[in-house]
């Protein structure tokens, strides 16, 4: 199983994710040119829990937080501005992190 999604396309932040059968791969490009790149590879068995916080029904801004086992603070915390991809990510994480 492999599925990819695009996060918000703003001038300062791009998030690309690939969902495989064993892990979540995140590529976070920052800046106008996208020269600064962070790569995250998170095995599903290491995800202890996740949360999606939305601002409300009419406001599409949302935040995704992912906790890794043994950590008190979230390892990943990403903002989604006016992007409904957060709900697809939530469904995928709920199905593989059970």
From TrEMBL:
Gene3D superfamilies: Bacterial Pleckstrin homology domain (2.30.29.50). The lineage of its organism: Bacteria, Bacillati, Bacillota, Bacilli, Bacillales. InterPro entries: PHb, PHb_sf. This is Bacterial Pleckstrin homology domain-containing protein. Residues 18-96 form the Bacterial Pleckstrin homology domain. Pfam families: bPH_1. PANTHER family: BHLH DOMAIN-CONTAINING PROTEIN, HYPOTHETICAL CYTOSOLIC PROTEIN. Signal peptide: none annotated.
């Amino acid at each position: 199983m492999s599925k990819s999604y695009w996060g918000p396309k703003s001038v300062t932040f791009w998030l690309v994710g690939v969902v495989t059968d064993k892990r979540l791969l995140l590529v976070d490009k920052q800046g106008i040119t996208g020269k600064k790149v962070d790569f995250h590879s998170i095995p599903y068995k290491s995800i202890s829990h996740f949360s999606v916080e939305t601002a409300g029904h009419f406001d599409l801004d949302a935040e995704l937080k992912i906790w890794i086992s043994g950590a008190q603070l979230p390892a990943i915390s990403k903002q989604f501005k006016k992007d409904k991809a957060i709900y697809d990510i939530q469904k995928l994480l709920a199905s593989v992190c059970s």
